[in-house]
Amino acid sequence: MFGLVPFGARKDVARKDNELHTLFDVFNEPFFHDDFMAPFAGWKADSFRVDVKEKGEGYELTAELPGMKKEDINLSYENGYLTISANQNVEEEKKDEEGRYIRRERRMGSMSRSFYIDNIDESKVDAEFKDGVLKIELPKLAETVSKSRKIEIK
């Protein structure tokens, strides 16, 4: 006829099925509350933002490294991979009039990103670091025009 299971029983099965699907949702929630992690908001020790643009004559790579110093940044190009790495060791200290700590914070971390950029002229790569932004100019190799010629068969 219309079904062997009463209408109300079908609703209970659907409810139990929904409860089963949401049983493990607790594992997707953050371990710490947002208020606990607020001092670390906006700072990730393992990544930084990078923009890569292709221009006609080369590539321009811009990396945002706020709070870094030029001495903390390493740049290398090997086997077609451009690698930007940075190490940061920051120590902030505030004391009261008697020299007791009111607040003392330390932060240490390293970051690294690699990009495969082939066919660049390594001798003309230029990099500049200013106001927390690393700008790298990567000129392309001059294209070699292969001449075609007819080969005579003997």
Written overview of the protein:
The protein is mainly beta and 154 residues long. The chain has a domain at 44-139: Immunoglobulin-like, CATH 2.60.40. It is built from two helices and seven strands; from the N terminus they run ααβββββββ. It has helices at residues 7-21, 34-37; strands at residues 50-54, 58-64, 73-78, 81-95, 101-116, 126-130, 133-139. A hairpin with a 5-residue loop joins β4 and β5. It is flat, with a radius of gyration of 29 Å. It starts with 6 loop residues before the first helix and ends in a 15-residue tail after the last strand.
Could you list some keywords that capture this structure?
154 residues; 2 helices; Immunoglobulin-like; four-stranded antiparallel beta sheet; mainly beta; single chain
Q: How does the SSE layout of this entry go?
A:
Elements: H1 7-21, H2 34-37, E1 50-54, E2 58-64, E3 73-78, E4 81-95, E5 101-116, E6 126-130, E7 133-139
Antiparallel strand pairs: 1-2, 2-7, 3-4, 4-5, 6-7
Beta-strand residue fraction: 35-45%
Supply the helix-strand structural class. Answer: mainly beta
Q: Remind me, CATH topology of the domain at 44-139?
A: Immunoglobulin-like
**Roughly what percent helix?**
10-25%
